[in-house]
Amino acid sequence: MRKKAFMSVLGSCALFGMGLLLTGCKPDLSAANAQAMIQAEYDHRPAASVNITIDETGLRQGVNANYWLMTKLYPNKYWADFQLTPDGKKVVKLAGGGDTFQWRPESLTDKKFTLVISTVATTHLKARDLQELQDEVGGKSVVYSESVGLEGVPDALANIAHNASNKLASKHTADFVIDGGAWKLKSIE
After folding, report:
1. What's the rounded Cα separation, in Å, for the pair 136 and 175?
2. Buried b vs exposed e over 135-157: b needs ≥16 C-beta within 10 Å?
3. Which residues contact 82 (CB under 8 A, 6 or more apart)?
4. Which of 11, 30, 108, 170 falls between 20 and 30 A from 52, CA-CA?
5. How many domains does the chain have?
6. 3-state DSSP of 86-131
7. Cα gap 156→151, rounded to integer Å
8. 181 to each of 25, 29, 132, how far by Cα in Å?
């Protein structure tokens, strides 16, 4: 009798296992695990400088932070040349190299003129604010915010980076698939 019950239980377990195998039961993927996989991908990539767009407000903030000084003001009173200070050379670099940039707005009231500088400090992107994981054919996907990391950047430069002319975050979608019985990051779009 015991042997018959044991065989019955064993048979039930075997049927249950086959059912799971045939239905493709997948391990669970949590938002925390998805975020960790995305962040691991970002951390695996080489660290990079952060591009910061300088508008009129950022120009003034950089002068106040002693990152650059005006070396020449043109007769029209809105064109100027600025040179990086020794403090500025420690935290930013210019796209064209060198240590002098030209401020050339179209008019005295031109608020759209900008230029781009890069941080000397390099950093990795950050995955933040994951939305709910979505089941997809063959896997899962999640929409999240990819944001620029400003670690190692002085507060004054971080404040310039937070001006309206800069975009420090963007939405992306990460796709995940089962590979060898475990979830893997397939792609980031």
Report:
1. 9
2. eeeebbbbebebebbbeebbebb
3. 59, 62, 63, 68, 69, 70, 71, 100, 101, 102, 103
4. 108
5. 1
6. HHHHHHEEECCCCCEEEECCCCCCCCCCCEEEEEEEEECCEEECCC
7. 13
8. 10, 12, 22
Residue 7 maps to a domain: no
Helices (H), the chain: 2-23, 31-44, 56-64, 86-91, 155-161
pLDDT tens across 79-98, in order?
Answer: 999 999 999 999 999 988 89
- Residues 6 or more apart whose CB falls under 8 angstroms from that of 59 comprise 82, 103
Which residue, among 121, 114, 95, has the nearest Cα to 54 in the 3D structure? Answer: 114
CB atoms within 10 A of CB 163: 16
Each residue's pLDDT tens digit, 24-64: 565 889 999 999 999 999 999 999 999 999 999 999 999 99
pTM (two decimals): 0.76
Tokens of 178: 């089962």
Under 8 Å between Cβ of 27 and 181: yes
Does 4 map to a domain?
A: no
Task: Specify if 22 maps to a domain.
Answer: no
Residues 6+ apart with CB under 8 A from 124: 42, 43, 45, 47, 48, 149
Is residue 6 domain-resident?
no
The residue segments making up the domain with residue 155 are 27-188
Phi and psi for 18 in degrees, rounded to 5?
A: -65, -40
